[in-house]
Amino acid sequence: MTVMVGDSVNTSSCHESRLLIVGLGLIGGSLAAALRVAGFQGQIAACDPDEQEIARGIEMGLIDSGGTQLAELVDDATMVVLAVPVLAMESVMANLAEALPNASADVVITDVGSTKATIRACAQRVFGQVPTNMVLGHPIAGSEKSGVAAANPRLYVDHKVILTPEPNVDRSALQRVRCLWKACGAEVLEMDVERHDQVLARTSHLPHLLAFSLVDTLARQDERLDIFRYAAGGFRDFTRIAGSDPVMWRDIFIANKEAVLASLDDFEAGLSRLRHAVEAGDSDALIATFDRASHARHYSTLY
Amino acid sequence: MTVMVGDSVNTSSCHESRLLIVGLGLIGGSLAAALRVAGFQGQIAACDPDEQEIARGIEMGLIDSGGTQLAELVDDATMVVLAVPVLAMESVMANLAEALPNASADVVITDVGSTKATIRACAQRVFGQVPTNMVLGHPIAGSEKSGVAAANPRLYVDHKVILTPEPNVDRSALQRVRCLWKACGAEVLEMDVERHDQVLARTSHLPHLLAFSLVDTLARQDERLDIFRYAAGGFRDFTRIAGSDPVMWRDIFIANKEAVLASLDDFEAGLSRLRHAVEAGDSDALIATFDRASHARHYSTLY
C-alpha cells in the first residue's frame, strides 16, 4: 500500500486489481494505454458491443480480456469506467445495475461523459439516487480520431479531468478515481455538475457548434467544394474541429441542450455587436474587440 | 539563364537583381528569409517606418540594406513588394508613384494584401489605372506572431499564393511575380479580384470574425477569466485564432466589408437552422449536419 501524506499521492500509483472499461473507443483505449505505460499492475478488461474492437484491444496489448456481455465481466472488477456515448449511458447503467449484485463489495463506478447533468439523471433513474460509490467525471481530452486503434497513452498527460462528485460520495471512492487519472498524467479538478455543464457549453460545445455550422454552410453552398482548396489558417482549424465524431456530438447537444442554447444566446448577442461595428466601419470598436480577444488567450492554459 | 520548358520552371530561380520589400514585418521578413534559403543571388532592401525593424532585418541577415524613406530606396529596385497593412496601401502607393520616375525601366510591383478590390481601387486612384507592371497578389500564410523577428523561411512552403492580375497585365511581369513565390516554395494560383475577395471572406475572414466574437463574448462575461482555464480542444483553437494582430484584421474587415457581411448572412442562416435542430432535439438533422461537415474536411487541402 502506498503511503499517502495529505494530498501528496504517488501520482503513478493506481492499485485497482481489476479495471473494467465499458466502451473501448479512443477514450477507453487511451485510458488502458496510459495505465500500461504507467506500470499499472492490475488486470484490465473491456466490454464493447463490437467484438473486433475487443480483439484489437487484446492484440494491441491494451486489455487482458473482454467481451460483449457486461454481466459476464463485472464480477471481480474493482473499478468500472463507463466510456460509452452520452445517450448510451442509461442502458449501460441499467445493465450494470442488474449485474452489480454479483460484483465485488468495494467496486467503484466512474464515467467519462462530456455532459454531467443528464448522466446524473440516468443514475438517479436507474439506481434511485447516485450511488455513493459512483464518481462522475470528464477527462477534457479528445481527438478527431476514434476507435481503439487510435488509443494514445499520452492523451491525458497534462490535461484536466473534472470530477463532479455528489455531496454524499464515498471519500475513498473519490480518492481512487483521482488516483486513476493522476496515474495517466492528468490534473484532477472538482466542481459541481451544473458549473461543469455551463463551462463546457461555453468552452467546448459552442465552439464545436460554430465549426460544424460554418463548415456545413459552406459545403451546402459550394457543391464542388472548390473553396475548400483555399482554406486559410482560420478555416483549416474549423474543418478539423468539424471533423469530430457526429454521433458523440449529437449526443452532447441533446444532453446539454439548455446550457448550449444559453451560451449560443450570448454568442449571438456578441456577434450582432461585432456585425454592427463592421457595417459602420467602426474602427475603434473593432480594435477594442480584437484587442480584448487577443489578450484573453493568455489566460487560456494550454493542455 | 535557367532554361524553361513550357510551364516547367526551375522553382528555385528568381532572377531579380534588387528586390525592395516595403513593410518589413512577418510577411515581408519571411519572404526575404525564404529567398535567402533558396539561394537568391540579388540584393534585398527594405523600407519600413520602424528603424529598429530595419536594423534587426540586417542583423538577422535577411536584408542587405534599408531605410525609412521610400524615395531613397526605389531607384535601382527591379521588383517592389508592398507588404504593409491593407489600409496603409494607398499612402504607400502615393509615395511610390512620386518615386517611380527615377526607378528602373523594367520594375515590377506586387503586393501581399489580404483583400484585393480595395487595393486595386487604391492603385486606380493613385495611378489612374492599375499599371501593367503591377501584379496584385496574396500569399495565404500567416502566423499569430508579428514583426521581422518572427520571420520564417518556410512560411510559404506548400502554401498557396493567389495572384489577381488585371486583363492587360504585362505577361513578363506576371511571370516574374510567379517566379518570386515559387522560389519560396509556394503554389501559385490565379483568379479574379472579386472571386478572391469572396473566397477569402468565407474561408478566412469569417472564421476570424467568429473566433474574435466568441472569445470576446466570453472574456466580457467572465471577468476573472476563470473559464479560460478549462479551455477544451475547440476553444483553444478559437483563442489562438483570436490572438491574431488586431490592426491587420481591423483593416481587413473594413476593406472587405461587403463580402464579409454577405458570408456572415449565410452563416447566420445556417446557425439558425442548427439552433432549431438543437432546440427540437432533432437527432436526424444534427447527424446529417455533422456528417456533412465532417466529410467536407477531406476536400480541404492541408498546407
Automatic annotation (TrEMBL), chains A, B:
Keywords: Oxidoreductase. The keyword Oxidoreductase applies. Residues 17-303 form the Prephenate/arogenate dehydrogenase domain. Pfam families: PDH_C (PF20463), PDH_N (PF02153). It comes from Vreelandella olivaria. Gene3D superfamilies: 6-phosphogluconate dehydrogenase C-terminal like domain, NAD(P)-binding Rossmann-like Domain. Transmembrane segments: none annotated. The lineage of its organism: Bacteria, Pseudomonadati, Pseudomonadota, Gammaproteobacteria, Oceanospirillales. This is Prephenate/arogenate dehydrogenase domain-containing protein.
